[in-house]
Design goal:
Blueprint lengths: L1 H5 L3 E5 L11 H4 L4 E4 L9 H6 L2 E3 L2 H13 L15
Parallel strand pairs: 1-2, 1-3
Length: 87
C-alpha cells in the first residue's frame, strides 16, 4: 500500500462490509488514480489490508466481469499497472 500511495493512488478493497461504496459512486470516479485490491476467491482480503485501503467496494463480481469482457473483446484496458506487493 505504501508503494501505491507514493505513486499517488487511492486504494479500493473489494470486500463485503457495511460501509462499502458502490463501484458507481461518484466519489470513486472522481479519483485521478485508483488501485483496486483483490483478494482470493475463498478467503478474500486480510482484515488489515481492508483497513489500510481508502475505500471498500462490495461489487467484486461486477468488476471481474467487466475486466474479463474487456480482455475477451480485445478492448484496451485502462492504464493498469501491476505492482507486486508482498506480505
Amino acid at each position: 500500500m505504501k508503494t501505491l500511495r507514493k505513486l499517488g493512488f487511492k486504494t479500493v478493497a473489494m470486500a463485503l462490509r457495511d460501509d462499502s461504496f458502490s463501484i458507481d459512486d461518484p466519489q470513486l470516479h472522481a479519483e485521478e488514480k485508483l488501485a483496486i485490491i483483490l483478494g482470493t476467491e475463498g478467503d478474500g482480503l486480510a482484515a488489515e489490508t481492508i483497513a489500510d485501503c481508502d475505500y471498500t467496494v462490495d461489487e467484486a463480481k461486477q468488476v471481474y466481469a467487466e475486466l474479463e469482457d474487456m480482455i475477451e473483446n480485445g478492448t484496451k484496458l485502462p492504464q493498469y499497472r501491476y505492482i507486486g506487493l508482498r506480505k
